TrEMBL record, chain A:
This is ABC transporter domain-containing protein. The keyword ATP-binding applies. Transmembrane segments: none annotated. CDD domains: ABC_DR_subfamily_A. SMART domains: AAA. It comes from Candidatus Jacksonbacteria bacterium RIFCSPLOWO2_02_FULL_44_20. It comes from the Bacteria. Residues 2-238 form the ABC transporter domain. Gene3D superfamilies: P-loop containing nucleotide triphosphate hydrolases. Keywords: ATP-binding, Nucleotide-binding, Transport. PANTHER family: ABC TRANSPORTER, ATP-BINDING PROTEIN (PTHR43335:SF4). InterPro entries: AAA+_ATPase, ABC_transporter-like_ATP-bd, P-loop_NTPase.
Automatic annotation (TrEMBL), chain B:
Keywords: Cell membrane, Membrane, Transmembrane, Transmembrane helix. InterPro entries: ABC-2_transporter_component. This is ABC transporter. GO terms for molecular function: ABC-type transporter activity. It comes from Candidatus Jacksonbacteria bacterium RIFCSPLOWO2_02_FULL_44_20.
């Protein structure tokens, strides 16, 4: 489990993180979503012990990263955004290098890790690297480079995985391959994955944190976020009557933010979109008012906004 | 130790995967042999003195070329982020890299041994002078490597790292010389003389193997490696 409290980070005058608090539960896949420059990588660099925060605390399984860097680092697998590889090494040499360090550190405290050779075989299979193990990394395609770097992050079978934009720059096939690997790992591990792509969150994450300009602007499951959003409260209602009368009827309801004409089915059937202020469910009110004014409702439903819309609103 | 060896092997591999180690070896051996046999054929003298007296100035140019990429390269490729988030101490990474460069130096010096032995057989040379010369050369070289590694840790740019290393090593070489000491009075002069590489090296290569000089070089090496580690740690200063 990772728990982050009141995290702030300044780069000179630029405040990259402002009082960020959240936690990642054991066994959960958390999506860390935000536009470029939001502070995702900065947060991950702090969790992995690469940089220190200006203020705040980061605990990994109860240990402050700051005070116990080695104990924390051995439990984490990290895929940095820059995909650091050594072009002159082969895939195998690279994985042996990282693996020998990570596995040794882990096995000193934990019996859950395999010896190097078996670990290598496992990640080569999991990440689909069998065809390229003896090739120099400098000759690999972007997709294979990404997967090689992912392999180094999971080689010691860590409890916690931090993946910074693991699918950026890949083509659609490669993206779905890498997501499959992440989903596979996420079944038993705690995973935190940053992205600026919504579909990614929907595809692999249990829960989402949306960050913008260094602040958390929303968090919850994808379904919760869709519900929380302002315009998620909009209701589509189709009624029979005079267009102006229907419009007025809806406007006269309490706590109404906006009423918009959407479509016209026939000369006396009109569809409207009604948005309430706050998160009220206004369907029942619409029903009662319509009954009292003898205006039949032919259709009514809550309009689901996409997560895309939520994201757009929160980060604009 | 395990981690230091892992970093050492990785670093040594990348030296031999790139032309730099070979260029270093060839340049050094060509110069060394030219100095050996040059003095032998031109002067008819069989001596290693020109070789050992030129070594500091050869090192001054070629060792920074060996160390300039040690950290600068990692910074450019993002390797720094990976290396420093691995479960190793910063000092282990510093030592592993330092040792790799020292290993190249060691191999190079070793390859000059046949030539040196030839000279020994041809002439009548004091064994202490040769052993002292090699020990001095190795320690001086390691000190310049430690200094160069430190310089490489403060910049992303290899050329800048190279130039800084050459400049600083040059200063450490000449501050103990009579012509730099001339304007200074007693205490300052003796401090400068003590800090400088050259007087200690000259004692050793003169055949006088004193513990003080060996300790001096080891102290310098640790001092620069310590600074190198501090530079890596500075990324974590709060503020
Ligand atoms: N090393 C750094 N020095 C100065 N500013 C930085 C540094 N790293 C990131 N920043 C700035 O901090 C902000 C957050 O960056 P980052 O965490 O990389 O965002 P994200 O990963 O969400 O795109 C950006 O404005 C970025 O320019
Ligand atoms: Mg980023």
């Amino acid at each position: 489990m990772i728990s982050i409290e009141h995290l702030s980070k300044k780069y000179g005058l630029l405040q990259a993180l402002k009082d960020v608090s959240f936690s990642v539960q054991d066994g959960e896949v958390l999506g860390f979503l935000g536009p470029n420059g939001a502070g995702k990588s900065t947060t991950m660099k702090i969790i992995t012990g690469y940089t220190a925060p200006t203020e705040g605390s980061v605990k990994v399984n109860g240990l402050e990263v700051w005070e116990h860097p080695l104990e924390v680092k051995r439990q984490i697998g990290y895929l940095p955004e820059s995909v650091p590889l050594y072009d002159d090494m082969t895939v195998l040499e690279y994985l042996q290098f990282i693996g020998s360090i990570r596995i040794k550190a882990r096995s000193a405290f934990n019996s859950g890790s395999l010896p190097l050779a078996e670990s290598l075989a496992r990640v080569v299979k999991l990440c689909g690297l069998a065809n390229v193990v003896r090739r120099p990394i400098g000759e690999l395609s972007k997709g294979y480079r990404q997967r090689t770097c992912l392999a180094q992050a999971i080689i010691h079978n860590p409890d916690i995985l931090i993946l910074d934009e693991p699918t950026s720059g890949l083509d659609p096939n490669q993206i779905s391959e890498v997501r499959d690997v992440i989903r596979e790992i996420g079944r038993e591990k705690t995973v935190m994955i940053s992205t600026h792509i919504l579909q990614e969150v929907q595809a692999v994450c249990d829960r989402v944190i949306i960050i913008n300009e260094g602040r958390i602007v929303a968090h919850g499951t994808t379904a919760e976020l869709e519900r929380q959003s302002e315009s998620a409260q909009s209701v589509y209602v189709k009624m029979r009557g005079l267009k102006e009368k229907i419009h007025q009827l809806l406007l006269d309801l309490p706590d109404i933010h906006e009423v918009r004409h959407r479509d016209t089915e026939s000369a006396d059937i009109f569809g409207f979109e009604v948005t309430a202020t706050g998160s009220l469910d206004i369907r029942e009110r619409i029903f009662r008012r319509a009954v009292s004014l003898d205006t039949p409702i032919l259709e009514m439903r809550v309009e689901r906004v996409s997560l895309e819309e939520v994201f757009r609103q929160l980060t604009k | 130790m395990h981690n230091i060896i892992a970093i050492f092997k990785k670093e040594l591999r990348s030296y031999f995967n790139s032309p730099i180690a070979y260029i270093f070896l060839v340049v050094f051996l060509v110069i060394a042999n030219w100095l050996f046999f040059g003095s032998f054929f031109l002067n008819g003298q069989v001596t290693l003195r020109p070789f050992f007296s030129l070594i500091p100035w050869i090192f001054l140019i070629i060792l920074p070329a060996l160390t300039m990429r040690l950290w600068s390269d990692e910074k450019k490729g993002g390797g720094m982020e990976l290396l420093l988030t691995l479960p190793i101490r910063d000092s282990e990474a510093v030592f592993g890299k330092f040792k790799a460069a020292c290993a190249i130096l060691c191999i190079t010096l070793f390859l000059t041994a046949p030539t040196a032995l030839t000279v020994v057989f041809l002439g009548n040379i004091d064994g202490g002078e040769i052993i002292g010369g090699y020990i001095g050369a190795y320690l001086l070289g390691c000190s310049i490597i430690a200094l160069g590694a430190f310089m490489s840790s403060i910049t992303k740019n290899q050329i800048v790292a190279f130039l800084l290393s050459v400049a600083l090593s040059f200063i450490f070489l000449i501050i103990g010389q009579d012509y730099t000491l001339a304007p200074f009075s007693g205490l300052i002069a003796s401090i400068l003389n003590f800090v400088s590489f050259l007087p200690h090296y000259q004692t050793l290569s003169g055949g006088l193997i004193s513990g003080g000089d060996v300790v001096y070089f080891i102290g310098m090496i640790f001092f620069f490696l310590f600074l190198n580690t501090k530079v890596l740690e500075s990324r974590q200063y709060r503020g």
